[in-house]
């Protein structure tokens, strides 16, 4: 099969050659590797598919991947919006099935609802606890983590998490137990399975907690942040299931009236307002 006959495979090979193992959250360096970037087996693990299936896809022996698989590969290979669109087209799929941004997964009416919480931190989580959408206050609270918006990945791979979340250990534990609950509810969700495989490889602490096999929903009613600009913020959260999108959660965090946390949130809201 010539490269022109297998443009998808050629693009996958080129894309994985550009991803360093460390950038993908995998342990180990580049010593002893015969090729640059990720191995096929590593891409398969990150995407939540079998190594044999990924090999057949790259070799052009598998010609009908699902949108879910292609979306997972785009995430595993850390593709940007345009490259992700290109990947969908090469697979013969509508790029609309591979959203340009996580907000595209959230219903427009829910996005409007987010913006209505002018004095609260509001955001939408997906089944793998990706932050799919935020209002300006929530976006400001999460700003210490840059563009990373997957909360388990933040908690287990970003050293800043321990500074931002004083109750870091408890938060990590409850997040893992809630993620295991979602893994049981959505066994075919490649984002969940891929994230679990990624963190199992990258974090011994995650492996230990995952091995507990404990499950619990996100029922904890409070969360503490230490924001670099405004300091400590204590919020009480309410969690709502999104009926039209199983697995999505709307979280709304509010401070106690008249508290320093309320003042801090008011300040964050003011600086987050568009000029």
TrEMBL record:
Coiled coil: none annotated. It comes from the Bacteria. Residues 33-84 form the HTH cro/C1-type domain. It holds the Pfam family MLTR_LBD. Gene3D superfamilies: 3.30.450.180, lambda repressor-like DNA-binding domains (1.10.260.40). It comes from Streptomyces gilvifuscus. This is Helix-turn-helix transcriptional regulator. InterPro entries: Cro/C1-type_HTH, Lambda_DNA-bd_dom_sf, MLTR_LBD.
